[in-house]
Amino acid sequence: MNNIEIPSFKTLYIEMFFNDVKLASGSGFLIARNKETRCVFITNKHNVTGRNPDTNKHISSTLAEPNFIEIHFHKPNFVNEWVMVRLPLYRDDGSPYWYEHPSLPSNTDVVALNLNWGDDVACYPYYLEEGQMDRESIDLRPSETVSVIGFPFGLSSFDRFPIWSTGFLAQDMERVNKDNPVFLIDCRARQGQSGSAVIVYRIGEFRTLNKSTGEVTHHIAPNRKVWDFLGIYSGRVNTESDLGRVWHISILFELYDLAVSDYEIRKNSKP
After folding, report:
1. CB 73 within 8 A of CB 30
2. Which of 62, 91, 181, 237 registers the highest number of CB atoms within 10 A of its CB?
3. InterPro entries per the record (predicted)?
């Protein structure tokens, strides 16, 4: 991967279409529980519905809703080449291919898409389980920096690699969990970054938190790179503010399991 940071491979550029008419661009990424499990694609609900999840009103003045999504995957064994995969968002019976969270309200702005990714695409997921390389349990306090990795205005750093935007944690994380899953960051993010991965990324010096004991350990490790996957960015609280919502990683486990189990049931039920 040369000198390209590993998280840069993980966020994927997406475009939403009504038939052949492009409606919007955005961001998304793959997740897996660990290195032994299959990948599931994650993005914001409003990316696939074209509606504000809080009001259910159309985002576009044209009232258009997407029925196809194009995901730009990395090509296996090639750093600077991509494979565009076009997928329908709805089955022939009108039911969505994407999955909403099974126990949270309908305005939860996160969905999963689970299809059979072919061998022609490379998969670089964020791993959900602690102890994996994306889960360093970094101690994070209000005003400390986080990275929002995505495609503002459809822009990229080069080719289809994402842009890293720097934000700041805008609250304490003590009470953030699957029952209270939204937290705020202060970041000048813009349209197109909906669906971006949010991580805390450190080089050389960082703190880790033992969640069982509450003990914080200070590490100094020159040139060591660590990161902790925090969740998925879903947009600003309003157009006048740089405060943005992030849906915490804790809700992704249940959504992931639903997407995997339903996919397997449907696959095995086919004649």
Report:
1. no
2. 181
3. Peptidase_S1_PA
Measuring CA to CA, which residue among 230, 238, 146, 152 is closest to residue 193? Answer: 152
Average pLDDT over residues 60-84: 91
Average pLDDT rounded to a whole number, residues 184-213: 92
Amino acid at 171: Q
Share of the chain above pLDDT 70, in %: 99
Cite the beta strand spans of the chain per DSSP E.
Answer: 11-18, 21-32, 40-43, 68-74, 82-88, 98-100, 111-113, 126-127, 145-150, 163-169, 182-186, 197-209, 216-236, 243-248
Q: pLDDT tens digits, residue range 105-133?
A: 999 999 999 777 778 899 999 999 987 77
Same domain as 122, residue 10: yes
The reported pTM is: 0.93
Between β-strands 182-186 and 82-88, what pairing exists: parallel, antiparallel or unpaired?
A: unpaired
Query: Do 237 and 135 fall within a single domain?
Result: yes
HSE-CB of 233 using CA atoms within 13 angstroms: 36
Residue located via tokens 């509450």: 214
Burial environment of residue 268 by CB neighbours within 10 A (0 to 12, 13 to 18, 19 or more): exposed
Closest CA to 248 of 179, 182, 166, 173: 182
